[in-house]
Amino acid sequence: xxxxxxxPEIRQSGExxxxxxxxxxxxxxxxxxxxxxxxxxDADEDxxxxxxxxxxxxxxxCAILFCDxxxxxxxxxxxxxxTGSSFPPxxxx
Length: 93
Prior knowledge:
Elements: E1 4-6, H1 7-12, E2 19-28, E3 35-44, H2 47-56, E4 63-67, H3 76-79
Antiparallel strand pairs: 1-3, 2-3, 2-4
């Protein structure tokens, strides 16, 4: 471990898909406060096992994220319809 990667790179890697990933020295998104990049400390399919190893190690202040197996989705902000209104467009009757 110890590789610095962006979250999209991690999600695309078959090595981490379906596993919990512990990241240290994270860079966070200013709007969502979610980690967007970090140094991979450890990864495991079992969250309890991963947390146990993290507790025993030196890197106790890390972010732990699940690398889901679904296709990468664009950020939620990119999925918002740009209609100028928060209401859906009217339907014709």
